[in-house]
Specification:
- The protein is built from 25 helices and 20 strands.
- Strand 9 and strand 10 form a beta hairpin.
- The chain is elongated.
- It is an alpha+beta fold.
- Strands 2, 3, 4, 5, 8, 15 and 16 form a 7-stranded mixed beta sheet that branches. Strands 11-10-9-20-19-18 form a 6-stranded antiparallel beta sheet.
Length: 722
């Protein structure tokens, strides 16, 4: 009995201890919760409610381009687009899952998927198998510092077999979509597909947006060229949404608040005027929670598409000029001595303002696959290729002679072949006898230019004796030619302009060649700048392709107000007397307007007047097929420069036909093109004047009709009052 009583008292005692311990623990827990809630409650609440503000720039469509007559040349074509916006902290596996769902709804081009992409995708989809590609020994080497983690990754890639890397068509599409997802930036929309998005695809994605986190439907744009390939190379290219910022200019654009996937101008006008065409991007402030989910958005600034450019180009004249060049190329290629002829150029410019009216170039291109030839746009050749221009530059030679005191206006030389000891006789295409500077320009005398260059070099010509010249004459002549724009960049508002090539030899014969345009090379754009300086009386004008910059407006049918007019820029004034320039102008007129002039046949009978200078240069073929020949092939370059009307110039032009024919005589393609483009210019001018007069007359009739109606209404009103 006593033993049972002791047991009864012992169990409750232990329970009491247990209850006491539980009570103490609960007391500590309650105390801790009280401290957390009362002392640190606000801190934890703030941490839970903590958000982050991220500002995102959204791109806008680029500005448009118009010709000088306000004809639309470059526009933005709207495109249905599917986008993906990655929230912060999104895992790769989540993106793959979304990509798999999206791949079932759309077709995605897989051409850009690489073998490396496939292997990376395999690792992502098969993490356990990928881990087995690395041995324990190799992992230990990483721990010991003998290998880097990146080395293990390289080993994994190397050990993935071709069979393992093979993907089904649907997996390939999933990978292609995932690539787009991964290339985007957090909270910034990334284009997944914007080309050939069908209505069905657009609808399917729209209906399933709830199950596609980050995916959205939107509108993108692409550049649309109204005149197809015409001047497209000069207008330039824009990077695609996949390309984003060019790698070579990445730091430059990032410093200017661009995003890596922004589309920018890659070449020529698009690149040159990027700051204007790009527009003002919309700024959106996104507020995200700790999980990266967007909880609020606020538009800081509304976006505005880029400003519009009004170009100096006259598209009617440009198109007509291109047709003329094509027709001439086709016709002349049928001749027997034109195997090297493959291109021709025409530049037309307002000599008083530098506005480029036409920048045309055409070239035969052979398709490497089919072997067929076609005539393609080569307008860029006007600034990126150079040639010996021949006698077209003799106006600069004569003016340099005046400036250096080598000749005076009216100086006579006897035109007969020069015989310098040790060299082949050099002369004009005919012996012209005793001629002055004006006749020398009219008939294109080589000898007159030779004698001028000899005097510039401080030498004395004695038949059959050596000619000792001062080699500084090369610099003297080149520096003078540069005043006109020959042998130096013109300053045109386009990148990648070349300056031409200067010969390195300084023998007497090369100086004589320089004087007649058969040594140094110049671009067609330099040639038109040179003749413009003569046409306008001595100002070297800066050529430019943009005439105005206009503010954008929402109405696609209207043009915005003028933001900036591009003023004419005089790059330098010729260091020549006004009388000297007028003298050369007179010589140029004789070329076209007097019988015996080298271009009289083409312009002497026209209702308009032209002043011009023809050119023929002995040259070597330096075209795309030059490697087919073991020795340099002789050929002829033919050119024509001029301006019209002769007394009050409003248009200057340069025609360049490289490698026109072989042999000493051939066709007159440069002159024929010159005649046709001038006929076209004045024909268009006449038609437009007639149209303007008709419209003005119609407007006056309408206004007069309104006045009559107003008077009649007032008479009726007064009668009713009476």
């Amino acid at each position: 009995m006593n033993k049972k009583k002791k047991k009864k008292t012992h169990v409750p005692f232990r329970l009491n201890i247990l209850f006491f311990l539980v009570f103490v623990l609960f007391s500590v827990l309650i105390l801790r919760l009280g401290v957390v809630q009362i002392v640190y409650g606000d801190d934890y609440r703030r941490e839970i409610e903590k958000t982050e503000e991220v500002t995102v720039n959204n791109s806008v469509p680029r500005g448009k381009m118009y010709d000088r007559n306000l004809k639309l040349m470059v526009d933005n074509q709207p495109l249905d687009a599917i986008t993906y916006t990655r929230k912060q902290g999104t895992k790769q596996t989540e993106m793959v899952e979304t990509a798999e769902k999206l791949a079932k709804l759309i077709d995605k081009d897989t051409n850009k998927v690489t073998e490396r992409d496939k292997k990376d995708f395999w690792i992502l989809k098969n993490p356990k198998l990928a881990a087995k590609k690395i041995t324990d020994k190799e992992r230990k080497k990483v721990e010991e510092g003998e290998l880097e983690e990146s080395d293990l990754y390289k080993l994994q890639l190397k050990r993935i077999t071709e069979e393992e890397a093979k993907l089904s068509k649907k997996d390939m599409e999933t990978l292609a979509i995932y690539r787009e997802f991964a290339s985007g930036y957090a909270l910034t929309p990334q284009i997944v597909k914007n080309k050939k998005v069908t209505k069905e695809e657009f609808a399917r994605v729209s209906e399933n947006l709830d199950s596609l986190p980050g995916v959205d439907i939107s509108t993108d744009w692409d550049r649309f060229y109204t005149y197809n390939k015409t001047l497209k190379s000069v207008l330039g290219k824009v990077s695609s949404s996949e390309e984003g910022l060019p790698s070579e200019s990445l730091d430059y654009y990032l410093a200017r608040d661009y995003s890596r996937n922004d589309r920018v101008g890659k070449s020529y006008i698009e690149q040159q005027y990027e700051d204007i065409l790009q527009g003002q991007k919309a700024k959106v402030r996104n507020v995200t929670d700790k999980s990266g989910n967007i909880v609020d958005s606020e538009v800081i600034t509304e976006g505005q598409r880029g400003k519009d450019l009004i170009l100096t180009i006259d598209m009617d004249l440009q198109l007509a000029t291109e047709k003329i060049i094509e027709k001439q190329l086709i016709a002349k290629k049928k001749l027997g001595n034109t195997k090297f002829l493959d291109r021709a150029f025409v530049v037309m410019m307002d000599p008083n303002t530098g506005e480029v009216l036409t920048m045309a170039g055409k070239k035969y291109e052979k398709d490497p696959k089919t072997g067929k030839s076609s005539i393609e746009d080569f307008a860029l050749g006007n600034i990126t290729t150079s040639y010996t221009m021949g006698s077209s530059v003799k106006g600069a030679t004569v003016l340099t002679g005046y400036q250096q005191g080598a000749i005076q206006p009216g100086t006579y030389f006897y035109d007969t072949k020069l015989k310098i000891k040790g060299t082949k006789a050099k002369g004009s295409y005919s012996n012209f006898g005793n001629i002055n500077d004006l006749t020398a320009l009219k008939v294109s005398s080589n000898v007159y230019m030779f004698r001028t260059a000899i005097n510039i070099a401080g030498a004395k010509y004695v038949p059959n004796e050596p000619l000792n010249i001062n080699s500084s004459a090369f610099s003297t002549m080149r520096n003078s030619f540069a005043q006109f724009g020959l042998g130096t960049r013109t300053g045109i508002d386009l990148p990648n302009e070349m300056s031409g090539f200067k010969g390195s030899e300084t023998s007497p014969g090369k100086l004589l060649d320089l004087a007649i345009g058969q040594y140094d090379t110049y671009t067609p754009m330099q040639l038109v700048q040179y003749v413009s300086a003569i046409a306008n009386g001595g100002n070297r004008m800066k050529p430019h392709m943009v005439k105005e910059i206009r503010e954008p407006v929402d109405n696609n049918e209207e043009l915005g107000p003028v933001d900036e007019e591009i003023s004419p820029t005089v790059m330098n004034r010729l260091d020549m007397k006004e009388d000297w320039i007028k003298r050369v102008q007179s010589g140029f007129e004789k070329v076209t307007m007097e019988q015996g002039g080298t271009a009289y046949t083409y312009f002497g009978h026209k209702p308009y007047t032209v002043a011009a200078k023809t050119g023929t240069a002995q040259a070597f073929y330096d075209g795309p097929n030059r490697t087919d020949y073991s020795e340099p092939q002789d050929t002829m370059n033919i050119t024509l420069v001029g301006y019209a009307p002769a007394k009050n110039p409003e248009v200057a032009f340069a025609v360049v036909v490289p490698w026109a024919y072989q042999g000493h005589t051939g066709h007159s393609m440069s002159k024929e093109i010159g005649e046709e483009i001038m006929d076209t210019y004045f024909k268009l001018k006449k038609e437009r004047a007639k149209k303007e007069n008709t419209e003005t007359s119609t407007d006056l009739k309408v206004e007069n009709g309104k006045d009559v109606q107003k008077d009649q209404a007032e008479v009726r009103k007064s009668q009713e009052n009476e």
